[in-house]
Design a protein that fits this description.
Elements: H1 9-39, H2 46-52, E1 53-56, E2 60-63, E3 68-71, E4 74-77, E5 97-102, H3 105-108, H4 118-128, E6 133-137, H5 145-154, E7 163-169, H6 171-175, E8 180-181, E9 185-186, E10 190-191, E11 198-199, H7 221-233, H8 235-243, H9 267-289, E12 293-299, H10 302-305, H11 307-317, H12 328-340, E13 344-346, H13 348-358, H14 372-388
Parallel strand pairs: 5-6, 5-7, 7-12, 12-13
Antiparallel strand pairs: 1-2, 3-4, 8-9, 10-11
């Protein structure tokens, strides 16, 4: 009879449990690291922009006819006319009222499916009122007022719209006084010397050759991703970890395009405002020359509608609220409209009311563009303004 063996099971169980826990944690961090590397593989939206546009010798870039693709909120398609729209006959059918939407990515609506974008929502609302209307989507991602004017002059006017709605966002102001956008892509820069408007940097140089992007992280991509998310969405938490020497402190200098909200802005912003007013007068004159009416609709930034977003921006850049004014851009734009004689519609209240009434968001939570509710609210406000003002023949 052999001697009884010692039972070592209980002694091994804590070791096995610890090994399993360590392996689980390692696998979790491995999955997180892989996901972060995928998320950081390129700048957000770059594939969409590169696939949907092509170089243009006058405007810098334009939609590439026939381009299609997808992004986080749906799919996009550019028609043969270079619009994110259905095909539009150049001459509207008898009895049909036409509206043309000009603007950047808010007008184009790349953050929502096509049927939800502001132009389509406005078209449905007008037709529901009994107005035989077509709303042409003339928006192009990244455009500022100068490019929108050139698009209207050279292409958009041919659609015979009786009403032209320009959506203006705060960063248009600075880029109206710039001859290039970040990344070095050239755009038109107007001069108004002697009271004559002309683009002074034509012909525009071709876009710079695509270079291999520098690595967006060193070491752990997961840590870089967390750092970026905290810097953008939770700056106080970022500061806490910076204090523990996890990473360097945030750069608190606000970008120049944000300083249009400063009560005492720097000289480049003052000059950009003058340039913007010149361009708006130029567009208004061109629209009137075509027998149409211009309505400028101000697109508020997310921080102008959502107090939580404003608090986040203040914390991110350590802003003294007494030196900043969230309503400054809308107010200055309205004053410019009164001086020049074109109407201005501030969409801030319509978006705020929609968010308040529905207890929901009107901007995407992960970005600064309207979601479907935001596009719908903007369309309702524009519809009410053009109907009440009698811009359209159908009442």
């Amino acid at each position: 009879m052999s001697a009884p063996t010692e039972d070592t099971g209980p002694a091994r169980r804590p070791l096995a449990t610890a090994a399993l826990l360590i392996a689980s944690i390692g696998a979790t961090f491995g999955v997180f690291e892989a996901a972060a590397r995928w998320a950081l593989r390129g700048p957000p939206g770059a594939l969409f922009v590169a696939a949907s546009v092509e170089p243009d010798p006058v405007r810098g870039w334009r939609h590439r006819p026939g381009a299609t693709g997808s992004y986080g909120h749906g799919s996009w398609a550019i028609n043969a006319q270079g619009l994110r729209d259905v095909h539009r006959e150049v001459t509207p059918a008898p009895g049909v009222e036409r509206v043309l939407i000009l603007g950047d990515s808010f007008a184009e609506g790349y953050s929502v499916p096509f049927e939800a974008c502001v132009s389509q929502a406005l078209e449905r609302a007008l037709r529901k009122d009994g107005c035989a209307a077509e709303v042409v989507n003339g928006g192009t991602v990244g455009y500022s007022t100068d490019q929108e004017y050139l698009f209207y002059r050279d292409d958009g006017a041919r659609y015979g719209a009786g009403v032209v709605v320009l959506l203006l966002y705060h960063n248009d102001i600075l880029y109206n006084a710039r001859g290039a956008v970040p990344g070095g892509v050239a755009k038109p820069l107007f001069t108004f010397t002697g009271g004559v408007a002309r683009v002074k940097n034509l012909p525009l140089p071709p876009p710079p050759a695509a270079a291999e992007p520098p690595p967006r992280w060193r070491g752990s991509a997961a840590l870089t991703w967390v750092r970026g998310r905290l810097a953008a969405g939770a700056p106080r938490a970022y500061d806490f970890f910076a204090g523990l020497r996890f990473w360097s402190p945030l750069d608190r200098e606000p970008p120049l395009e944000l300083r249009v909200f400063e009560r005492d802005p720097p000289e480049p912003v003052v000059q950009a405002w003058l340039q913007t007013e010149h361009l708006l007068r130029l567009l208004d004159a061109e629209v009137r020359r075509n027998g149409a009416r211009l309505l400028v609709a101000y697109v508020p930034a997310k921080m102008e509608v959502d107090r939580r977003e404003w608090d986040r921006v203040r914390a991110r850049y350590a802003l003294d609220e007494s030196a900043w004014d969230r309503g400054r851009v809308a107010r200055l734009l309205a004053e410019a409209g009164r001086r020049a004689g074109f109407p201005v519609l501030d969409l801030t209240d319509a978006l705020w009311e929609e968010a308040s009434d529905t207890k929901g968001d009107v901007y995407h939570r992960g970005g600064g563009h309207w979601n479907e509710a935001g596009h719908a609210a903007a369309a309702r406000a524009i519809r009410a303004r053009v109907r009440v003002a009698g811009f359209l023949g159908c009442r």
